Amino acid sequence: MQYKEYEESVGLLIKYVAAYCSKEPLVTDEQYDDLYAAVLAYETSHPETIDPASPTQKIGSVKKLGKDVLLTNIYQDPVELTSTSDLKNYIKSFKFNKEIKNKFHCSHVPTGIRVELTYDNGKFIRATTCRSKDKGSDITDNIYSITNFPRNIPISGWCAICGIITVHRTDLLEVNQSRSELHIPTFSSAEEYVYNSIHQVSPENTKSRRLKFYADTLYGVNRRILIPSEQISKLTSIGFCTVRDMYCESESDILNFVEESARIKDVLPTDLEGILIRLDANLPNEAEIKPAVWKFAVDLARTNVRDIEWRVSKTGIVEPYADIDMTIIDGKSITEIFLNDIQQYKKLHIGKGAVVDIRKAHGKTPVIENIDRPGKYKEPPTVCPSCGEPLAEEGGYLKCENLDCPELLVSKLELYQDKCADVLV
C-alpha cells in the first residue's frame, strides 16, 4: 500500500464507521475488517505518516474474542416486527412440544451500542463490542470509566454479561449545548455519541461522557444459559442496572407491553429503539430460536428539494447533499440530507424541485424513503466545486486529488480542531 492509497483507505473507513452508526452499513463486517487490517499494517510500517483521523487511532481494534466467549444470538439477525400480523406469524413459527407453553419475555432496547462484559471468578476482565458472532472491538480501558456497573460479582468461574451502553437524554442535550457554544459539531444521536465515546484514545475523555450500561443477558459457566426472566432477576440481584421488562403469556400481553412502551418512550431517560421479544423457556434447540425485535414506527415527512449541493469532505471525497425545505421530525429540524455517494445519487435520480418523503428513525440520520416527484436531475460534477480541478472516480466515490484545494485545506484544519476540542469536552 502506498501513501495515496492509505489516505483513501482512511477516508473510506471513516465513511463506513459513520454509515454503521446510522444503521445504513455500506460494507459487510468482513470487508471493513479487511480494510482496517490493511490500514493498520501500513501504519505499523510507516508510523511517521499516520493520519490522526484514522479509526485505528481510537480504542477498539478488531480482534477475535476469547475461547469461552459466547456472544449471544439474541442480536444476531433478529426477526423484525412492525405490526400485529408480524407478531402472529412469529409466534406461529414455533413448533413446540405439547408440554411446553408459549411464554415470552419482553424488554426495552435503549438506543446505544451493544457490548459484552467478561468476568472471571467474579472479577471484571474485559469489555468488547458485539459487532458479529466471533469478533468485537476491545474497549476495556474505556469501559472502566462507566460507574453504574459492578467490577466484582458473586459468580465463580467464567461468565459473560451483555447489554447496551447508552446516554441519558438530558446528558446528551447538555453535551451538545456545550459543543454548540464552542462551535463544535454536535452529536446527531445517542448511538453516535456512545460510539464516539467508547472509542476515544484516552479513557479520561470517555470518563467525562456520563455513559450508562444496562444489562439484559447473562451467560454462565460451562455454557449454561438461564431463561431470559431468570437472567434479568439474577443481573438485578448482583448489582446491574437492567431495562424495563415484562413476562408475557399471550400475544395480547406482548401487545399491551408494546403499546404501553410506545406511550411512555418519549419521557424515558434514554431513547428507546424497540422491544426485544424472547422465548422464556429452556429448550434443546435454544440456539436455533431467533428472538424478535418490535421496531417502533418511524415518522415520515414530505418536503421539497431546493437543490443538490456537492461538498468536499475532509478526505477529499466530493459528496452529494440534498438541500431541503426545513422539516421537523421527532422534534428536530432537518434542512439537508446526505446522499452517501454517486451510486446512491444516481439510484435516487432526484434534483431541484423534487418532492420526497423522508424518515428519521429515533435519533438517527434522515434518509429519503419515497420519491413523489423526481425534480430536475443533473449528472454528477466532473470538476471539483471548490478548486475546479478534474475529479477522479474511485470505488463509487468522486475525489478531488488537488492537495492545494482550498476546501480540502480548510476541512483538514477543522478536523484537527475537532480532535483537540474532544479533549476539552
Would you kindly provide a written description of the structure presented here, covering whatever features stand out?
This protein has 425 residues and is an alpha+beta fold. It is built from eleven helices and 18 strands. Helix 1 runs antiparallel to helix 2 (29-45).
Number of strands: 18
Main beta-sheet annotation: 7 strands, antiparallel
How many helix segments? 11
User: Quick check: average pLDDT?
Assistant: 79
Produce the secondary structure layout.
Elements: H1 3-21, H2 29-45, E1 62-64, E2 79-81, H3 84-92, E3 104-110, E4 113-120, E5 123-129, E6 135-137, H4 140-143, E7 158-166, H5 169-181, H6 190-198, H7 203-207, E8 212-219, H8 228-237, E9 245-248, H9 251-264, E10 272-279, E11 292-295, E12 299-312, E13 317-329, E14 332-338, H10 342-348, E15 355-360, E16 367-373, E17 391-394, E18 397-400, H11 406-424
Parallel strand pairs: 2-11
Antiparallel strand pairs: 1-6, 3-9, 3-10, 4-5, 4-7, 7-8, 10-11, 12-13, 12-15, 13-14, 13-18, 15-16, 17-18
Briefly characterize the structure.
This protein is an alpha+beta fold. The chain has helices at 3-21, 29-45, 84-92, 140-143, 169-181, 190-198, 203-207, 228-237, 251-264, 342-348, 406-424; strands at 62-64, 79-81, 104-110, 113-120, 123-129, 135-137, 158-166, 212-219, 245-248, 272-279, 292-295, 299-312, 317-329, 332-338, 355-360, 367-373, 391-394, 397-400.
